[in-house]
Design brief:
CATH superfamily of the largest domain: HAD superfamily/HAD-like
Helix content: 25-40%
Strand content: 15-25%
CATH topology of the largest domain: Rossmann fold
Distance between the termini: 6 Å
Largest sheet: 8 strands, mixed
Number of helices: 7
Number of domains: 2
Low-confidence stretches: 257-265
CATH class of the largest domain: Alpha Beta
Number of strands: 12
Strand order of the largest sheet: 5-4-3-2-1-10-11-12
Bound molecules: magnesium ion
Radius of gyration: 19 Å
Mean pLDDT: 91
Structural class: alpha/beta
Shape: globular
Length: 265
C-alpha cells in the first residue's frame, strides 16, 4: 500500500466509491466530511487529485459544490485538467439525435426507468425497477450495434450509450502526462465494471488499484483491481489515514527529516 514518502496522484470514482449509490443520481449526497477530506488530500499531493466519473463535469460539480476539482466526466469524454482548462471531444450529434426519441419512447411506457440525457450520451437507469435489467441491456445493445460511433457501458443498474474514443483509463493516462500529476505514482479507487479500464491503466503505471465492494458487488466476476475495500465508509477511513500520512510526510520533508516514513498498510 502507499508509502507516505512517495509522491502520489489520486484518482477517485464518485458514485459507489466516494458517495453511496442512491435510487437516482440526483439523490446521491456526499457525507459532510468528504469535501474537507478531499481538500486535505489535494493539498497534501500538490493538487494531484482528480475525480473520474461517468457523470458530466457539471453534475460532478453539483455533487461537490462549492469544491471544484480536476475531473474526468462522462467516462473521460470531458476532462478538466490541473490548470482548470477543459478538454472535450466533439459529440457524434447525428447519432445522438437518432437515439434520443427512441430512448424517450422506450422509457415512457415503462415504470421505474429513468433516462438521463447527458448531452454527449445517454444513461438508462433501472435501479428503481431492477427486474427490467435484462430487457434494458438487450434494448441498449441493439441500439449500440446500429450506431458505430457509440458504445454500450453496462454499469450498476444502468446501461449507458457513450461516444467511443474515451475511457476512464485514457483519462487517467492523460492526467499522468500533465502537471501536477506527471511523475507521481497513481492510485485509482472505483467500484464498477466501467472502472476496470482505470484499474488496468494504474497497474500499467506501477500504481495502486482499489475496488470498493458492497453487498451488491461483492464476489462479482474477476477484476483487474489488486486491492479490495469493504464499502464507501471503509474507503473514507482509508483516505483519512492516507491524508494523515501525507501531511506528516510533508511536515517532516519541510523540517529536513525525510526518509523515515512509515508504510501505510
Ligand atoms: Mg462508480
Amino acid at each position: 500500500m502507499p508509502e507516505a514518502g512517495e509522491r502520489w496522484a489520486l484518482f477517485l470514482d464518485v458514485d459507489g466509491t466516494l458517495v453511496a449509490i442512491a435510487a437516482t443520481p440526483e439523490q446521491a449526497r456526499p457525507e459532510p466530511m468528504l469535501s474537507p477530506l478531499l481538500q486535505r488530500l489535494a493539498r497534501a499531493s500538490d493538487g494531484a487529485l482528480a475525480l473520474i466519473s461517468g457523470r458530466s463535469l457539471a453534475s460532478i460539480d453539483r455533487v461537490f459544490a462549492p469544491l471544484r476539482l480536476p475531473a474526468a466526466g462522462l467516462h473521460g469524454w470531458e476532462r478538466r485538467r490541473g490548470d482548470g482548462g477543459v478538454v472535450t471531444h466533439q459529440p457524434p450529434a447525428a447519432a445522438l439525435e437518432r437515439l434520443r426519441p427512441r430512448l424517450a419512447a422506450y422509457v415512457a411506457g415503462r415504470r421505474g426507468l429513468l433516462l438521463e440525457d447527458k448531452g454527449t450520451g445517454f444513461a438508462l437507469h433501472y435501479r428503481l425497477a431492477p427486474e427490467r435489467g435484462p430487457a434494458v441491456r438487450r434494448f441498449a445493445r441493439r441500439l449500440a450495434s446500429a450506431e458505430p460511433e457509440l458504445r454500450l457501458l453496462a454499469g450498476r443498474k444502468v446501461a449507458e450509450l457513450q461516444p467511443r474514443g474515451a475511457s476512464k483509463g485514457e483519462a487517467i493516462a492523460a492526467f499522468l502526462a500533465e502537471p501536477p500529476f506527471a511523475g507521481r505514482r497513481p492510485v485509482f479507487a472505483g467500484d464498477d465494471t466501467t472502472d476496470e479500464d482505470g484499474f488496468i491503466a494504474v497497474n500499467a503505471a506501477g500504481g495502486v488499484s482499489l475496488r470498493v465492494e458492497d453487498a451488491e458487488t461483492r464476489g462479482r466476476g474477476p477484476s483487474a483491481a489488486r486491492h479490495r475495500v469493504a464499502g464507501v465508509g471503509a474507503l473514507h477511513r482509508w483516505l483519512g489515514v492516507l491524508a494523515q500520512r501525507l501531511e506528516a510526510a510533508d511536515r517532516s520533508t519541510r523540517s529536513g527529516a525525510a526518509g523515515c516514513h512509515p508504510v501505510l498498510r
